[in-house]
Structure formats: C-alpha cells, structure tokens
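During the second half of the funding period, the structural biology subgroup turned its attention to how the target accommodates small molecules. The most pressing case was zinc ion, which had performed well in the primary screen but for which no bound structure existed. We therefore specified the complex as follows and requested a full 3D prediction, including the ligand pose.
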Amino acid sequence: MRKYTDENKTKLEKIVCNKCGRQLKVENGIVKEGCFGADTVFGYFSEKDGVRQMFDLCEKCYDEMIKEFTVPIDETEEKELC
Ligand SMILES: [Zn+2]
C-alpha cells in the first residue's frame, strides 16, 4: 500500500507491506529497501472485468511468496539499477 503526499501521486510518503503490515523505509520519496510493487488491470476475459489492483510486499514477504511457486521464477542480473 502506497501513500503519497499529493493528489497527483508525484511524491511518495510511505509504503506498507500488504502482507505483514510493516512500514518500509522511505526517504525523500525514495524506497530505501527491497520492495515488490504489483499493479495490474484485469481485462475483459478475467472475472474482474476492468478492475485495477495494486499491492506492495516487503522483500521478506516476497521471498516467502515465490518460495511457494511450483515453477521457479526467471532471474537475471541487471547492470543498471534504478
Ligand atoms: Zn512484509
């Protein structure tokens, strides 16, 4: 869950992990720790026609989630980090 200081959502105020409820470290609008942000819109062929859902997970909760996957995730090494 993300909270912004303004209506246009330009400056991030805080992020709370939707699973464990812990507040992640945010400084000057920048996340200072591992965070998984999901933002998806379900289309016509889904059961959630046009519904947008968003959530955030801390790195620990993300790791717990992917551990339960039957098929392992794809992983590559990125040279440039944002
Ligand atoms: Zn968490």
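Two results from this model are relevant to the next phase. The CA atoms of residues 2 and 15 lie 5 Å apart. The helical segments are 59-67.
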